[in-house]
Amino acid sequence: MEPLYVQLADSIARQIEEGVYPPGSRIPSVRRLREQHEVSVTTAVEACRLLESRGLVRSRPRSGFFVERSRPEVLEPAVPAHSTRARRLDAALSLRLNLGIGNPQRPTLGAAVQGTELMAITTVNRLLSQAMRLQPTVCHSYDAPPGSPELRRAVAQHGLDAGYSVSPDDVVITSGAKEAVYLSIRAVTRPGDTVAIESPAYYALLEVLASLDRKVIEVPSHPRRGIDLDVLGKVVSRQRVAAVAIVSNFSNPSGSCMTDAHKKALVDLLDAHDVPLVEDDVYGDLAFDGSRPKAVKAFDTRGTVLYCGSFSKTVSPGMRIGWAVPGRYQYEFEHLKLVVNQASPTAPQLALAALVEGGGFDRHLRRVRRLYAEQMERMIDAVDGAFPDGTRHTDPRGGHVLWVQVPGLDSLALYERAAAEGIHIAPGPLFSASGGFRDHLRLNTGFPWTDHIASQVETLGRLVAETLDGPSS
Amino acid sequence: MEPLYVQLADSIARQIEEGVYPPGSRIPSVRRLREQHEVSVTTAVEACRLLESRGLVRSRPRSGFFVERSRPEVLEPAVPAHSTRARRLDAALSLRLNLGIGNPQRPTLGAAVQGTELMAITTVNRLLSQAMRLQPTVCHSYDAPPGSPELRRAVAQHGLDAGYSVSPDDVVITSGAKEAVYLSIRAVTRPGDTVAIESPAYYALLEVLASLDRKVIEVPSHPRRGIDLDVLGKVVSRQRVAAVAIVSNFSNPSGSCMTDAHKKALVDLLDAHDVPLVEDDVYGDLAFDGSRPKAVKAFDTRGTVLYCGSFSKTVSPGMRIGWAVPGRYQYEFEHLKLVVNQASPTAPQLALAALVEGGGFDRHLRRVRRLYAEQMERMIDAVDGAFPDGTRHTDPRGGHVLWVQVPGLDSLALYERAAAEGIHIAPGPLFSASGGFRDHLRLNTGFPWTDHIASQVETLGRLVAETLDGPSS
Q1: Is the overall model pTM greater than 0.90, yes or no?
Q2: DSSP-derived pairing of the beta strands A194-199 and B64-67
Q3: Which among A16, A113, B115, B130 is least buried, having the fewest CB atoms inside 10 angstroms?
């Protein structure tokens, strides 16, 4: 039985879907909902917030909640029908592709990286110099896991925005979320173990699993709702799965953002089968409308979730600072961090702590969310204009990757043709352990829109058409 | 057949040992040696340099080579007689011990850490702020292995001092030597494989091997000469050893520094059996007399050696910057670095590159080598004064750890008693996979000498005596 507020939200969601409340219209006020449904104010408010976190409504200060205008005629990429069988991985593809990460001055459509305009460089430089000047001994001496108390406190504080309430003691600082995911996988699985992942999946996760000799099962993931819980339920019921690993909010590449109800159900499912979840939530802070979706961790009551976060997508990738909240696996996680590289550098931790605690982080997020929203809109418009009829793509509400499907396309052939013209893309099979998504590609929207990017997308549209017509299609 | 210069050096070494050239006297000049032995100038010079690197003579500018005065009556710790059988590891001991790393403001005798006086903080802070200001895009964007071209060039340049000549392309930047060793072990071995290590061994290496489920064989190591090549030769002949791992110069904890001849013989042995060497050389820059010993890597002609270096022992541990020269395993090594945490932070790399290339690193080394020499001398004097008769200890020519043996001591009991008085030590069994070195302890000499340290050593001497007399002895 769902909690009352979820039931209420579901009922309003149905009415929105049925056109009772058309796009742009106001849904009933909290007072009205309270009267209509005989619920408490809290329940009514929570239902509205849930609808907002699902991207169905948006609040306007002092006016109420309004139904989101959905983009007309978005054809979403298709969803795989079944899970795959457990298989060993070969990470060779990601190794031989160039996603254009080599020159940070140059925007790329390939790697999921962002322009410096989207980072908080000036402030962070100042805070870092300040930390080194004021606390030279702390900054330059050996540290040990779990990391700087200041940043752990700031992360715990920031976690409240993602709906999880933990103590600074529960946080372990890492060198990026990538390291947090690597250590999490090592903490909860052994060589030969099977890990269930969403499909499509972030290719760096595939690399970690391949490198550690873990097998994977790919579970279909919907471009809005995320991993299919029915399929996952069958997978974890019929075989031993050592862990599940997902990107919970604005996933890479699918852009999916699980609803709160979905997140709670995932935790319940995994708790029932005693399977830990490695949650990568590096994009959650980049919700276009400013309503930060909850982490799955927010629904974790038993320490099942190893949460992985990062400042790379928001403040600075080059500082390499992320964190984990590893739940009941914290001891093992900290030990692994110690073994691998002792600790992360101290000065950047102090700078980021000061950024969060001084409010600069939230101000920065408010600024860049709007920029990311705009960049995504421009990219979608450009793809709609340049790509052939029948092209499908996602409509993400956060993050900076767009997942595109062109039925019949050979995206690896497209990759080669595009590379020859100096354009980098991430072809679909990169995101699959089984060569899937051949007709998909991922486009990065992490840079402010320019004529150069526009012309790259236009060229890409032409190359897509040529590839479809060409001998390799 | 040894090369001519080695034969010549050996013959002079014998004469020194026999008292032909007593401590403090001058050995024959290069011209004299040339005439006496009918060798070239180069051979004579190389022989003298070899003797110097063995610590037998010391050059004085424009005066020639003088026989080193050895400390009177140094009783060295005993050397284990045999190698152990391959065994799985349990790293539990290091996890439950507190070596006093928690408070960087407070000197500790436990962890091998150094005081800020021994770091290059002011200069590095300035260079780091400068790098972030001048190259914000590079500092804050995503990087990928192998790391910053500037620092790789600086490391290649610095490598010449350690006798290895490599291109910047051969260098991979890591988050400390610890990560370099971790990635090296992963690059050349698989779970269940056996790694041969020196005994005593640096405990963090034991932790890495335990964590990765590798077995170890402990090979006796001499407190001056390092790992016993005769025993190692037997070990690699009679079973498959996937790798050998050592600290080549001023090893931790034994202080040993292999001679050049020994290093070359090690490479030859491993090449003959096709076994890679993981060489940890974090202390080589801290030679008390300024004569930087060569790395084993200097004798590597086939890419057998995965060399691991660090700026942690010289400039700043808190910046977490080290490097590897992984030889023919570079591809695999770089891939693992990418998988684990993408890259190391960029700004500290640029700062260190500027430090090395501007000459500040060498100036800094010249300054701290004298300080480390003095600190070691004070510690040895204090131990000689405070510890009971029969105490043995090393007489390292570099680094900052002293390895002490008190026959009959239970160093774990001593650890507990010392901890109760606020004194941290590293007990002997920490450095063994088989519970060995029960009557040994390691003392850190990384801090400028103070009355407080002097009184700690005095207290320790008293506790040693009590422990010997007490119920646990």
Answers
A1: no
A2: unpaired
A3: B130
